[in-house]
């Protein structure tokens, strides 16, 4: 009988459960697991299920029973993949489950930023300013058309491509950015710096690697138009948060919408979170762009399928 340990159950909405395997097993799950708790909880596991719990080489070497780490996400940055392979521990993630909902979230952010929707709701309606202004409308924040805007997409995988498709459907021009520092430009791509200079909205969909960490920093933000917006639904560390906040406060760019931060959950005193309470041009959602009902259903079913296939085939 195999021992299955789910280390961070709260990473999946409570409305959805991973289907239990058909083979004999013991199932234990925890709402969340700290680094100090991981070894004790995983030491007898044949299969670990996790989204974000860290498994480095030293920890993996202390888990001789472990055969599979089933990731309830696409990213595997929390696992030392080289060490896992050397130790014969399989790692299986899930791709494609959010290919509809993340692009829709991005499109919603584009409209919210360009039409100042959150600012009007928060500052003019719920504050009673509209009710007491003495006129039928209260135009106090900029409203600019989405149609005709230039969207710069960084990362041309399934998410970036779908964002581009949706953007073109509402009349936007789409530029796909070539890798930073590339000496040749592939067909269908535009040089990295040119996209930053031309785009009215920049949206990030590239994986987090050593070369993409802090891809958006003081230098790259300075290349953007002062009327441009930044959207990040990819990975938090793609953006230098200190540089972004400085750019927002100093008018280097017009605004930003984020679904991811460097540290999640963020500290209560996270400067961006605090700034979002007072800045009309900063919108933050709590890493939910992926989490539509259909996307979560697909995710949990695929995790279950990955486990079943591994036990049956060893792959």
Tell me about this structure.
This protein has 315 residues and is of the alpha/beta class. The chain is 34% helix and 14% strand. It folds into two domains: 2-97 and 294-313, Rossmann fold (3-Layer(aba) Sandwich), CATH 3.40.50.720; 100-284, 3-Layer(aba) Sandwich (Rossmann fold). The strands form two sheets. The chain has a six-stranded parallel beta sheet, with helices on both faces. A five-stranded parallel beta sheet has the order 2-1-3-4-5. Helix 4 crosses helix 7. The longest helix is centred in the C-terminal third of the chain and has 21 residues, at 293-313.
Topology:
Elements: E1 2-6, E2 25-29, H1 35-42, E3 47-50, H2 57-61, E4 68-71, H3 81-86, E5 90-92, H4 101-114, H5 117-125, H6 129-132, E6 150-154, H7 158-169, E7 173-176, H8 192-198, E8 201-204, H9 218-223, E9 229-232, H10 241-250, E10 255-258, H11 271-276, E11 282-284, H12 293-313
Parallel strand pairs: 1-2, 1-3, 3-4, 4-5, 6-7, 6-8, 8-9, 9-10, 10-11
């Amino acid at each position: 009988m195999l021992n299955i340990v789910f280390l961070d159950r709260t990473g999946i909405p409570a409305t959805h459960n991973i289907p239990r395997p058909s083979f004999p097993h013991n199932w234990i799950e925890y709402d969340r697991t700290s680094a100090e708790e991981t070894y004790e909880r995983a030491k007898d596991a044949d299969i670990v299920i996790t989204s974000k719990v860290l498994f480095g080489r030293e920890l993996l070497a202390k888990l001789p029973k472990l055969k599979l780490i089933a990731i309830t996400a696409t990213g595997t940055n929390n696992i030392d993949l080289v060490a896992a392979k050397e130790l014969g521990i399989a790692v299986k993630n899930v791709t494609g489950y959010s290919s509809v909902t993340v692009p829709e979230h991005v499109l919603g952010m584009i409209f919210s930023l360009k039409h100042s929707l959150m600012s009007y709701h928060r500052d003019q309606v719920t504050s009673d300013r509209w009710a007491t202004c003495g006129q039928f409308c209260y135009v106090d924040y900029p409203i600019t058309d989405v149609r005709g805007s230039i969207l710069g997409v960084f990362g041309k995988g399934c998410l970036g491509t779908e964002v581009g498709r949706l953007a073109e459907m509402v009349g936007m021009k789409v530029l796909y950015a070539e890798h930073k520092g590339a000496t040749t430009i592939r067909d269908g791509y535009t040089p990295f710096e040119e996209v930053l200079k031309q785009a009215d909205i920049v949206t990030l969909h590239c994986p987090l690697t050593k070369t993409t960490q802090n891809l958006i920093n003081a230098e790259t933000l300075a290349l953007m138009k002062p009327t441009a917006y930044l959207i990040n639904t990819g990975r938090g560390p793609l953006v230098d948060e200190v540089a972004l906040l400085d750019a927002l406060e100093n008018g280097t760019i017009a605004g930003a919408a984020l679904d991811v931060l460097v540290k999640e959950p963020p500290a209560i005193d996270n400067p961006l979170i605090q700034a979002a309470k007072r800045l009309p041009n900063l919108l933050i959602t709590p890493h939910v762009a992926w989490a539509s009902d259909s996307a979560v259903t697909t995710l949990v079913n695929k995790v279950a399928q990955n486990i079943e296939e591994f036990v049956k085939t060893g792959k």
